[in-house]
Amino acid sequence: MYKTNSIFKSEWSSNMLNRFSIEDISTTLVLGSCDARNLSRLIKRVYGGEVKNIWGIFYNPFSIYSELERLIDKSNKWEFGVYKFKKNGITIFCDPWRSWIRGESLEELRHKNKLFDRKALKTLLKLKNLVLVFGLAEVWFHKETNTIMNRVPIELPLNQINKEYGVRLAGLASLSRCLSKTMKICNEKLDINVTFTVSPVPLKYSSLNKDIVSASNKSKSNLVNACKSVVCTKVSYFPEYELLSHHSYFQEDGRHLTPEAIAYLLSLLIGKSVFEDLLGKKFYVPKVNKYGIIKGRLYLKSL
To answer: If you placed Cys at 219, which of 137, 155, 285, 298 could pair as Cys (CB 3.0 to 4.6 Å)?
Structure first.
């Protein structure tokens, strides 16, 4: 038996297990914020299947929608948001949404994206369920093209960022429109079940004129309200943010989830405890210190 915090065993948690029951978990992909990658890894570890999360982190709903639009509607809007910077005298071109893909020319970036498109589309077509985890409503955008970036283009000099990019808190109307379009692609063009949720991980920094706690709460609140505004028979809302508000779910830095919290989340998503299924299968998340610096691996504890 795996050790679980008493909070995991609350009566409310037991009731929650009866409210959600994603079926055929082996054909489920969790996409979005940092905890999405850990959930996908846990699903793969315990239940196997062919679905693998090959994506990096998507920080906001607009980047997730843009990724789906690119794959399903063959959109090339990403090219309007490409930015470049110098590294060791070499010009590097960066994708605005797939912030983990870059090339030494626009042609190389296009080629890498085409290769990724094939793998990504093949993965999407295997799915029966897609869980989208939204992290931020605070978004960076290019002032000239109004392209919303996946994250602030940190590779650029600060004076260039301030000159060419702006930051704003996306409101309920724009978020709801984005989520509605996301839902339409999932339901009508992919024919998969979609679940929206909001990451409980608080912001580390904010570029808005607010203290970090207020900025984080406002960002998460806007996301939660937008999700609930579009919930219908074609999309579910899973209250991850509301469920994991207690400090015991997080590691020392107060931002990274423990492996027990990840297993607890998956239990609620599929409607049954996964702790028994984890027996003999080691699962870990990156272990961080109080400053959020990775210091090895943190394994799920067993009795």
So the answer is: 137
State the Cα–Cα distance between residues 175 and 177, nearest whole angstrom: 5
Helices 172-184 and 212-230 cross at an angle (nearest 10°) of 50
**Looking at the chain, which runs of residues are DSSP E strands?**
28-32, 83-87, 90-94, 102-103, 129-134, 138-142, 165-169, 193-198, 235-238, 284-288, 294-299
Range of the domain at 280: 6-299
- What pTM does this model have? 0.89
Whether residue 189 lies inside any domain: the answer is yes
What pLDDT was estimated at residue 58? Answer: 96
In a domain, residue 1? The reply is no
- Tell me the pLDDT tens digit for each residue of 102-147: 999 999 999 999 999 999 999 999 898 999 999 999 999 999 999 9
Query: Are residues 94 and 155 in contact, defined by beta-carbon separation less than 8 angstroms?
Result: yes
Are the C-beta atoms of 205 and 142 separated by less than 8 Å? no
SS3 (DSSP) at 250: strand
Q: Number of structural domains, the chain?
A: 1
